[in-house]
Prior knowledge:
The chain crosses the membrane at residues 55-76, 83-103, 156-178, 296-313. Keywords: Cell membrane, Cobalamin biosynthesis, Membrane, Transmembrane, Transmembrane helix. Its main location: membrane. 72% of the residues lie in helices and 4% in strands. The radius of gyration is 20 Å and the shape is globular. Helix 5 (99-114) runs antiparallel to helix 6, helix 7 packs antiparallel against helix 10 and helix 8 (197-221) packs across helix 11. By secondary structure, it is mainly α. It has one domain (5-312). The strands form two sheets. A two-stranded antiparallel ribbon has the order 1-4.
Amino acid sequence: MEIWVMPVIVCISALLLDHLLGEPRNWHPLVGFGNLAVRVERCLNRQPGRSGKSVLAGAFGLLVVCGPFFALALLAEVWLTGWWLLIIQALVLWFALSLRGLAEHGRAVAEPLARGDLDEARRKVGFIVSRDATALDEQGVAAAASESMLENGADAVFASLFWFLLAGLPGVILHRLVNTLDAMWGYRNARFLYFGRCAARLDDAMNWIPARLTALTYALVGRTRLALRCWREQARSWDSPNAGPVMASGAGALAVTLGGPAPYASGVKQRPVLGNGPAPQAATVDNAIRLVQRGVVLWLVVLVVAAVFYSLSGGQ
C-alpha cells in the first residue's frame, strides 16, 4: 500500500468508528491511564509547596506515566507494516477522538434547555464544565456548553488528527496523554501549581499549532470575516494562549457573544467578551456542534485532495 493512502484510510476509518460506536463505554484506555496518573501523583507529589522539588517531581511523573506508552508507539511504528499497522493506527486514533461524544454531551444540554428544563440543563452542563452550574441562567448554560464544544473540538478532535498526520502513533498517543495530564494536573491551586507545570507547558506547546489550525477551520466553515476579526482583536485578551484563538474565532464564526463573567466555586471570574452578536441560546450549542463537524469534513476533503494530487504528481 502506497504511503500516501495510509493516513487517509486511517483518518476515515477512525472517524467512521467514532460515528458508529462513539467512545468505548467500558475499559476506555484513557480511564486506565487516568487511574495510573492519580496513583503516580499521590506517590510523587509529597511536598506541593516546594516549587523546585515539585516541578522536578511533576516532570518525573510525566516521564513515568507517558514514557512507556510513547515507547510502545514507536516500536509499533517500526515493527508493524501494512494492514496491521493501519488497523492499530485506526483503533488508537478512534480512542483519541471524541467527535460523537462531544456532540452527545452538547445535545444533552441543548435539548432540555430548548424545552425550558433549566434544572436538567444545568445538571448536564455540570458534567462538561468546571464552573458552578447551579448559578447559571439560561444564557450562562448555553454559553458554557457552546464554549465547551469549541474548545474540546480543538483538543479532542482536530489536535488528535493533526498529531496523527504529523507524527503517527507516537504523536497522537503523546498528545492525548499529555492533554489528559494537563486536565488532571494543570490546576493553578496549592497542590498542582508546581507539580503540574511541566504537563501544562508541554500541553500548551503541543496544542499551539493545532489550536490555530482549528481557529482557521472555524473561520472557514463559519462567518469567515467576523471570525477572523474576532480572532485578531480578541484572542490575546483570553488567559490561555491556545484557547484564545479557538474561542474568539469560534464565537465569531457562530456570530454570537461568548465569554464574560462565569461563576466558579471560588467566585465569579471576570472573563473577556468574545465574538460579536446576540447572547447564546440552546440553538447556539447545536450550531457549535455543527461547526466542529463541518470542520472535520473540511479536513478530510483537504486530506483526500492532497493525497490525490500527490499520487497524480507521481509522489514528487
